[in-house]
Design brief:
- This protein is mostly helical and 458 residues long.
- Among the domains are: 129-304, no CATH class; 385-456, no CATH class.
- It is built from 25 helices and four strands.
- The strands form two sheets. It has a two-stranded antiparallel ribbon with strand order 1-2.
- Strand 3 and strand 4 form a beta hairpin.
- The relative contact order is 0.12.
């Protein structure tokens, strides 16, 4: 267990928290946060005040096509700007988590504004009670269209939403493909959601896209008595959501997914079960679960440091926060979404209702080249304020050896850790290039660090 007895350990722990509960931050930001106690930093992250960003007018001025976004590609510059710049990091990170779990694909939906509204829904409800979040996403017109609930009628229920609600959004299935619920429960859930759909919208060709709206058609709703998870009544979709959200299977499923996303890709069932207990005791309150998770000795232990493969979003927005290149939402910042896309994560368009397959599946020979090229290009751009700051700080230090150079650089990149083998390879390279200027040596070193296998982990 890492302690906060030393200032260095405290900063390292805060950096670890920000990589997991957000996308990391600059060296100066870590210094500022280190004046607070670790638990205070956690509390601040967990309690963002929902509001439009102060620079929303700039976003709309620079990203004109996103104001009436027709497609996911028109919409994504607005979200990626907030992923790169928002001070409320956990608000954006939890939106990304739910975007991957309660997945809606923007290409099929083909309505950029609806995708942005869904992300905003995750900001509003993502740290609250799961029941509220699940009910709101069940009424989300984009979700209803994505999973074909507009084709579900009283006399011909479509099972898509009822099935995915149970299998992928809440209760889950085990390794044998079985769940606590039955096939009959799926059919009953489908009946309960009949009549839930989205209102028809006019064609966007001349006037642009119109806002999508939820619609409940009572005449098309199955009002019959139903038996679901062993209970009988005239259940509707809200009843199904309430029963599902407080079920012990849902507690384990959601807490497992939170653990895999924020802590480790290796399931630790002792920790997951502890989180599930907290979930049930607090009626599915996600904030309470994450508070326990982030403040736990397990999360603060070296056992989980740098053990998670960075998603494309972790890498792109983590690097962007270190280099701090963008001050206004200019054209280049719109390419942040393109960068994640080239690395395998098309934001606002998960590949299927399962979301993305994460962990080591993020990396193959093609995506690795994109990851290294992006990180090395950004960290060697000496016009970026963050890069200038790193060069300035290292140049001001009295560093007597290549080991000192490496240690200083790792701290300034967010208190990174690398293997002994990587360290020796870097020092050997530096030893061969001692005849270059100090600034070029620093840039060379930064480029090597972000190109290492170690940098692919957070």
């Amino acid at each position: 267990m890492i302690t906060t007895n030393s200032n260095l350990e405290k900063k390292s722990l805060i950096a670890h928290l920000l990589r997991r509960a957000g996308f990391g931050c600059s060296f100066d930001q870590i210094q500022d946060l280190s004046s607070m106690e670790y638990d205070e930093v956690v509390d601040e992250l967990l309690n963002p005040v929902y509001s439009l960003p102060d620079d929303q007018d700039l976003l709309e001025r620079y990203f004109i096509a996103s104001v009436e976004a027709r497609t996911a590609r028109h919409a994504d510059p607005q979200w990626t700007w907030r992923l790169a710049k928002s001070k409320k990091q956990l608000e954006e990170k939890i939106a990304l988590f739910w975007h991957g779990l309660l997945a809606v694909g923007g290409v099929k939906l083909d309505h950029g504004l609806a995708m942005l509204e869904e992300i905003d829904l995750f900001r509003k409800y993502g740290l609250g009670k799961f029941n509220d979040l699940l009910l709101n996403i069940s009424k989300d017109p984009g979700m209803m269209y994505w999973l074909d609930n507009q084709n579900s009628h009283k006399n011909a229920p479509n099972e898509n939403y009822g099935r995915e609600l149970l299998e992928l959004f809440s209760m889950g299935i085990d390794e044998n493909g079985e769940g606590t619920y039955s096939e009959e429960d799926v059919k009953v859930a489908a009946k309960a959601f009949t009549g839930w759909s989205s209102k028809p919208t006019p064609p966007p060709f001349l006037l642009g896209p119109f806002k999508m709206e939820f619609n409940f058609d009572e005449t098309d709703h199955d009002n019959s008595e139903k038996t679901f998870l062993g209970k009988t009544g005239n259940f509707n979709g809200e009843d199904i959501v309430e029963m599902v959200s407080l079920h012990p299977s849902t507690a384990k499923f959601i807490c497992k997914r939170l653990y895999l996303f924020f802590v480790s890709e290796d399931e630790n069932w002792e920790e997951i079960n502890n989180l599930a207990d907290i979930y049930l005791k607090n009626e599915g309150n996600i904030k309470k679960v994450l508070e326990s998770l982030f403040k736990s000795n397990h999360f603060k232990s070296k056992e989980v440091f740098f053990k998670k493969v960075k998603s494309p979003s972790d890498l792109v927005f983590g690097v962007s926060r270190i280099v701090d290149r963008f001050k206004i939402p200019e054209l280049d910042s719109a390419e942040l979404a393109t960068n994640t896309f080239l690395m395998g994560q098309f934001l606002l368009n998960p590949p299927s209702v399962e979301g993305w397959h994460e962990g080591e599946e993020w990396i193959d020979s093609g995506s690795l080249i994109e990851r290294i090229n992006y990180a090395s290009d950004e960290i060697t751009n000496v016009n970026s304020p963050g890069v200038k700051k790193i060069i300035e700080i290292i140049s001001s230090k009295k560093l007597n050896s290549d080991e000192d150079f490496v240690n200083a650089s790792l701290e300034l990149l967010g208190y990174l850790e690398i293997s002994n083998r990587t360290r020796e390879i870097i020092k050997e390279h530096l030893n061969k290039n001692n005849n270059i200027s100090e600034e070029n040596k620093i840039i060379d070193l930064l480029k090597i660090i972000v190109s290492t296998p170690d940098f692919q982990y957070c």
